[in-house]
Amino acid sequence: MAKVLKRAKKTRRNVQEWVVSVFAHFNNTHIVVSDKEWKVLTWATWGSSGFRWAREATPYAAQITSENALNKAVTLHGLEKVTVYVKGIGAWREQALRWIANTWVNMIAIFDETPVPHNGCRKKKIRKL
Question: Could you state, in chain order, the average pLDDT of each consecutive group of 10 residues for the chain (129 residues)?
């Protein structure tokens, strides 16, 4: 007879300060809500929000994605204060930040962690005729 493993019951974490990470690039946008110790609570992407193909690459899709991630976090864990970390390029991250700022969540700080190239790629060799 096989042993039956009991799962631990998920507990509701009532922490006042949360971290929202927005990873925006041309193919997708990930919005992750975690606590100060970087333990992931909820997340959302364009695909999980129901967008497909050409509709993914719109600022509206980023807005709906951030809305879905924050609504899940509020209903499950009681979100109040937020520190936002943004990484990536494009109009999508601006729209996601705008939606977070216009909601009932208090933003403590916004940090931009977009990587900047120091010297860029190596140039192409000059063609000799």
Answer: 66 76 84 88 80 70 84 80 88 82 84 85 88
Q: What is the pTM of this model?
A: 0.76
The class that CATH gives domain 17-112 is: alpha beta
The per-residue DSSP string of 42-109 comes to: EEEETTTTT--GGGGSSHHHHHHHHHHHHHHHHHHH---EEEEEEEE-SHHHHHHHHHHHTSSSEEEE
CA 97/CA 72 separation, integer angstroms: 17
Both tokens of residue 17? 């300060």
Please state, in angstroms and rounded to a whole number, the distance separating the CA atoms of residues 42 and 32.
6
> Which residues are registered as beta bridge partners of 88?
24
